[in-house]
Amino acid sequence: MNIFVCVKQVPATSHVQVDEQTGVLKRDGVASKMNPYDLYALETALRLRQAHGGKVAVGTMGPPQAQAVIREAYMMGADEGYVFSDRRLGGADVLATSYTLSQAIRSVGDFDLILCGKQTTDGDTAQVGPAIAEHLGIPHAAWVSRLEADGDGVVVEQQLQTVVETVRMPFPCLVTVEQDIHMPRLPSLLRAREVRDRPVTVLSLDAFLDTNPEHYGLAGSPTQVERIFPPPCGAQRVTLSEGDLALGLYETLQKWKFVPVTPQQ
Question: What is the C-alpha to C-alpha distance for residues 189 and 253, in angstroms, rounded to an integer?
Fold first, then answer.
């Protein structure tokens, strides 16, 4: 079974500045880490490889320094890794990002299963995974909490709003996983020594099947940011220390319009 896992390098802090002109996060000088939700997808891939054989490839779209998350994936057990890096890919919205990744995956090989974390901590859209599948024209399932390989396909359980749905999909297909599917393993120090010289393949837009720059980055993004600004910080504090505290709290919430005002009898 050949598996591709989409990973992403995200800021390691919530205190990140935003370019007010482009709406893009300013990542220079900000500590980064692998998107936490992608760790669950990678762990799922490694367990499937252990049970059924094959290989696990990981890939990310980002600047050259995104190789760090690929090397972290190597230390966890991934077999090969790719960074899709090109200035023409920068500033992409969900549509352009998912199209880029679909073309990138096509450019590096044929895979039975594509795994993604359910969302990223910097974008939080939870749309990129399913959108990749739509660009590739393959079946997909999101919010998956259980996955088992079944011959020429997979059986998954989706955590929907009020029910759990069981679905069987043939290969090739794409799945985005929930964080309770498996507990991710820690990177191995021994394996870190074994893979320290393993190369990371860096590919530009020129390696894709579709090399039209109008389909990528800001040029290929129909979503345009009109205005962006950091949310206001601050807090109001009220101290209730005397009298009927419950009544005081209720009246304060009424004043702030968190609860309806009760008409007086």
Answer: 53
Contact 254, 261 (CB under 8 A): yes
Query: How does 45-70 read in b/e, with b if 16+ C-beta sit within 10 Å?
Result: bbbbbeeeebebbbbbbbbeebbbbb
* Whether the model pTM is above 0.85: no
Rama region for 154: left / alpha / beta (φ>0; ψ in -120 to 50; rest) = beta
- The residue with tokens 């309770």 is 180
Phi, psi dihedrals of residue 245, rounded to the nearest 5°? -65, -40
Alpha-carbon torsion 134, 136, 138, 144, what sign? negative
For 53-68, how does the pLDDT look when each residue is reduced to its tens digit (9 = 90+)? 999 999 999 999 999 9
Q: How far apart are CA 32 and CA 12, in angstroms?
A: 5
